[in-house]
Amino acid sequence: MSITVNGLDELKKLAGSDLGTSEWIEVTQERIDTFADATGDHQWIHVDPEKAAEGPFGAPIAHGYLTLSLFIPLFTELLDVQGVTTKVNYGLNKVRFPSPVKVGSRIRLVAKLTEVEEVPGGAQITVDGAIEIEGGAGTRTSPSSDGWPSCTRTKA
Asked: Would you tell me how many other CB atoms lie within 10 Å of the CB of residue 144?
């Protein structure tokens, strides 16, 4: 469920708030292959299902940066800021990939709006988020979480 705010004043009131969780999406081999074509990263562990089945994870895995790139479409499910002219991804403070995402896995985003800082001409937000793998293994991102982290990110 998306939270909608109109303008920076309403956005500032959300600082410190949990934004919730996105819907689950499946990471398909087709999505992995398309990402490999776009980036030129055709390492066998991503694009060769037969060889990857014999590899360390028993199946092809998504590129870490593919998982990271899904942060934005999943994030737009959680927060809609209206009444502003432009939204730009300023950068990342910290990214980790603690667990591989196997082909066929379902992932979602869990996020918190940690800070809203006024800057000349607008605001800069900081979001703590984790891409979780449904039924995966690892360290829980929160006690109420159903998944396990694949990618953790602090977005500025």
From this structure: 9
